[in-house]
């Protein structure tokens, strides 16, 4: 079974012809380690689904310090959602931490599929809700939990990330220094 079909069918079911039609709206791309998918200031009209690889989404503050917002592994969606939805320039960077294989869909194709197949509209609505919940939980964790609790929660929820990214990046994601992270484990 195609990995995208397996992913979609975790939420909705599709007939073979429906999936073929959906897949025709996606374009495969490959990116090498360290290549950008998105850079700050770009207009964004694509949403990406990770077939293989690991990416990070981050912002740079005024002093050039990196703040990681999200990691994206296999079966995860990634883009600058504000730029994608509002058709404004990106405020974030997304780059590849490993060689990556992705599928992307343009905003217009996503809207077209949602109109043609209400099943796909339900799929994206559920995925959006799941993403919002994950984002809300991350903010709550940053506000309520100690650095150690945030690390333990991340380790339990995302063991693959812990194994695939540097401690410096984990520290950035958790909002702590590399030194603080070193003291936690």
Automatic annotation (TrEMBL):
<dbReference type="Pfam" id="PF00027">
    <property type="entry name" value="cNMP_binding"/>
</dbReference>
<feature type="domain" description="Cyclic nucleotide-binding">
    <location>
        <begin position="32"/>
        <end position="115"/>
    </location>
</feature>
<protein>
    <submittedName>
        <fullName>Crp/Fnr family transcriptional regulator</fullName>
    </submittedName>
</protein>
<dbReference type="InterPro" id="IPR018490">
    <property type="entry name" value="cNMP-bd_dom_sf"/>
</dbReference>
<dbReference type="InterPro" id="IPR014710">
    <property type="entry name" value="RmlC-like_jellyroll"/>
</dbReference>
<dbReference type="InterPro" id="IPR000595">
    <property type="entry name" value="cNMP-bd_dom"/>
</dbReference>
């Amino acid at each position: 079974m195609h990995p995208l079909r397996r992913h979609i069918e975790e939420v909705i079911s599709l007939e073979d012809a429906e999936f073929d039609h959906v897949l025709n709206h996606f374009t495969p791309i490959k990116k090498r380690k360290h290549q950008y998918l998105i850079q700050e200031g770009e207009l964004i009209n694509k949403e990406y689904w990770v077939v293989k690889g690991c990416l990070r989404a981050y912002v740079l503050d005024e002093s050039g310090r990196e703040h990681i917002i999200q990691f994206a592994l296999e079966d995860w969606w990634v883009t600058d959602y504000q730029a994608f939805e509002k058709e404004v320039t990106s405020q974030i960077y997304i780059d590849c931490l490993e060689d990556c294989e992705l599928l992307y869909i343009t905003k217009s194709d996503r809207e077209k599929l949602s109109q043609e197949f209400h099943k796909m509209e339900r799929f994206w609505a559920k995925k959006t809700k799941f993403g919002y919940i994950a984002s809300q939980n991350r903010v709550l964790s940053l506000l309520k939990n100690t650095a150690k609790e945030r690390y333990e929660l991340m380790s339990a929820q995302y063991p693959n990330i812990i194994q695939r990214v540097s401690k410096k990046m984990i520290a950035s994601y958790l909002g702590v220094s590399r030194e603080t992270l070193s003291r936690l484990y």
